[in-house]
Write a structure and sequence with these properties.
alpha/beta; about 35% helix; 18 helices
């Protein structure tokens, strides 16, 4: 039976703005208060989806969230009509209004963790929505994320869904941004690689000193248990706390893997040699030949990796057996990074080709190509059970670009978030989107 790695990209929402909400995310903070262009952001993301579809990859779409989140504001004491809630928040606590308008759900690498059926005890694809409790503006996402994923992967014969972990610091979970799976073939048993920034209970693991470590070892272990993963199919590794303090807020900012290949920076991990040996040994027992590509700090400094998002790239298996790296335009603009990529593709490594995409709108808010997609490995019969409305096709691409042109603003500043009309625009857009993607009622305004 055929198997596929399907990339479900997050559709950028109508309230895409530069609120600078993510402490530890250098790009997010450095571009705070600039005017954003939601329409351009959504169209850039859609262009990437369409390009990958045209290359022969199976591509899906993951819907954005309702923003501003008026229910979240009400839970914090603002009252009255929707318009009054927004007005009060704007006057009394503008940072809370900005947080409630965040379009960060577009980074669906944080939507949850996914384990393919070949790895799980019950032979189903398992999803656990990420609690994202390190940042308030992201912690409010998981209820809607769970409903959207449930509408996309609804067949209980093939798919199992788990609620987010307890929303406490000890179980901070950032989803697939800290999770990678290695395998010989997508439909065969693989090795799931969980990267954590700190341990909540074990003091042997050093913690960063400047920026928070968002993913805990305990959260990763809990997800592995929920998904029914066996010990011989899991490897845990700690992110280097020194690189977290340089702005590497998730592992996918310093490493990316796919198939049998891990592409990582020399300074990415603690105990690198032991980790590589464990990955090699466990994958070998499952028929795979683990390969690692280490980018030395002498060629690409961590600072350059963070600025260019070299590792927040999509590493894709081409039909001819080579690998394709999808990078943002910022990689080509960085002379050291671009020189390294030219060397990499001409050196006989597993990475044969690099393609560049303009994703400036999301990059300025701290997320690149890998942040924008959630990977789901599916067997042929499981892919057939996915809601067909969310699988990208040429007609769907055309419909979605028209939908964006109809509903999205081309400029958004912080002061615009206080406009009650923005909520009405967002709801109208999402109500139409659920019909386009055949999701049913997944948003609070549709349910309540």
């Amino acid at each position: 039976m055929k198997s596929f790695e399907v990339n479900f990209d997050g559709l950028v929402g109508p309230t895409h703005n530069y609120g600078g909400l993510s402490y530890g995310n250098v790009a997010s903070q450095s571009n705070s208060q600039q005017a954003s262009n939601p329409k351009e952001a959504a169209l850039q993301g859609l262009a990437k989806m369409k390009a990958l579809m045209d290359m022969g990859f199976v591509q899906g779409v993951l819907a954005p969230q309702e923003r501003p989140d008026v229910a979240a504001l009400r839970s914090l004491g603002f009252a009255g009509s929707d318009a009054q809630v927004i007005e009060q928040a704007a006057k009394q606590a503008m940072p809370l209004l900005v947080a409630s308008c965040s379009a960060s759900s577009m980074w669906v690498a944080n939507a949850g963790t996914v384990s393919p059926s070949a790895d799980t005890a019950d032979g189903r694809v398992h999803f656990t929505a990420a609690n994202l409790n390190c940042k308030y503006h992201r912690s409010i996402e998981h209820p809607t994320t769970s409903r959207v994923l449930g509408a996309m992967f609804a067949d209980a014969k093939h798919f199992a869904h788990h609620a987010a972990l307890p929303a406490v610091a000890q179980f901070g979970d950032e989803g697939a941004a800290n999770h990678t799976r290695f395998c010989r073939e997508y439909g065969e048993a693989g090795v799931e690689f969980f990267v954590f920034g700190r341990s909540a209970f074990d003091t042997r693991y050093p913690a960063p000193q400047k920026y928070p470590a968002r993913q805990t070892l305990e959260a990763s272990q809990a997800v592995a248990r929920l998904h029914g993963l066996s010990d011989d199919g899991v490897v845990y590794a700690q992110q280097n706390p020194a690189v977290i303090d340089q702005g590497v807020f998730h592992n996918d900012v310093i490493a990316v893997g796919n198939g049998e290949v891990l592409f990582y920076h020399e300074d990415a991990f603690q105990g690198t040699e032991q980790m590589l040996a464990e990955l090699h040994g466990k994958l070998a027992k499952r028929g795979g030949n683990f390969q690692s590509i280490c980018v030395p700090r002498s060629k690409v400094a961590v600072e350059d990796a963070v600025r260019s998002y070299l590792f927040n790239s999509q590493l894709l298996n081409r039909a001819d057996g080579g690998m394709l790296l999808i990078v943002p335009e910022e990689c080509r603009a960085n002379p050291r990074v671009w020189a390294y990529l030219q060397e990499l593709t001409s050196s006989g490594s597993a990475v044969r080709e690099v393609k560049v995409f303009d994703l400036k709108q999301s990059m300025q808010n701290g997320g690149g190509p890998a942040c924008l997609r959630l990977r789901v490995a599916l067997k042929e019969n499981e892919l057939a059970a996915v809601n067909p409305g969310v699988i990208m096709t040429a007609p769907l691409y055309g419909t979605l670009t028209q939908w964006v042109d109809k509903h999205y603003r081309d400029s958004l500043r912080e002061s615009d978030l206080a406009d009650p009309q923005l909520l009405l625009e967002c709801r109208a857009a999402l109500d139409e989107l659920t019909q386009i993607l055949k999701l049913g009622s997944v948003y609070p305004f549709q349910i309540n």
